[in-house]
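Appendix B, Record 12. Input sequence as logged:
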Amino acid sequence: MVINPYIEIPLRALFSFIFLLVFARMNGREQISQLTYFEYVVGITIGSIAATLTTTPMDPFLPGLLGMAVWAILPYLTGILVLKSVPARKIIEGEPVVVIQNGKIDEEALARQRLNLDDLMLMLREKDIFNIGDVENAVFETNGDLTVQRKSQLNPVTPADLNIGTSYQGLPTTVVQDGVLIENRLKEISLSKDWIVKKLQGEHGVTDISQVSIAQLDTSGNLYVDLINANPENKPH
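Logged structural output:
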């Protein structure tokens, strides 16, 4: 049966999109900057198969979908293998490489990673380091990022260094989002709807929760409020 290509192509695109979404969720939530080279190549391959399935109606759809499924399932299986086996992890993902150790650049390690000094300086500048003399150790990670340890005398002073006590600071709780009160979040922190309504009205002049874009309560009891369509200069905090 011949199907109108103006109907078949959108249907192919829809089914390919759904399968890509399922496969992407199945294989995790790593950001592009965190992907290994292997994962990057697999992603390009799966995307290419999906594009071919969409734009070539003369090719049978199901065999191509099967190929895309195999390409998506194999990284999932290798991901499980990487979690369970250290030798497999080293083979598939590689190992981090120390490129600066005890303040000295390892030129051989840079060469093995096909990096030059300009590449190294670029990655250091991305870490707000402009002087190699400030670096104690630097590790080239398997995802292509550079992890840097500054020399200890250049680390910022912390309250612990000065023997200053600090109070607990946990994550804020979002209690209103897009004009909707999130009641289960209030129950988690043992607060009532009446309490938040009074807090919004008394401290921020909010007469209706639907006016609130987002409201977050921190562990010190401070409520941050951002109103929908409010002038930035007049937004309550």
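The two ends are 63 Å apart (CA to CA).
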